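U., I forgot to send this yesterday:
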Amino acid sequence: MKKRTNATKLLATVALLTVTLYPCTSGSASPRGTRTGMFGLARGDVARINVANVGDPNVGPIVVEMQFLDSMGNLVATRSETLTPGRAAFFDAPFDIFHTEGNRVETRAVIMSQGPPGLDKNLTISIEVFDAEAEHTIYMVPIRNLVA
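Result:
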């Protein structure tokens, strides 16, 4: 089992506290979205976007697009989900998809939604980084809501 040192845990905590959100702007009200600040993965780590539609069951679905970008802003992976109220989804980006020779990589997540205006307030979103080998979460950052 891989062990994390106190210094590594401290760095993960600092990353948790420093992740910031930036609105995605496209010149129109749809799609709406958000971007995280940069965060790091070490070899063996997995980045995960968690999203749930916690809205009224009598309201229609929300289409959510989840993306991971590399440090240069290039799209690394993308996934789209249609979430009816009460449904959740996640999207994983293991370290290896970033195709790097080193032991660390920087990434950021982009989450966008499409649907009637106002429905995106029903989404709960979080970013999680976990150690795949030890099967435990290193840190998780909740994201309150999407920006129009």
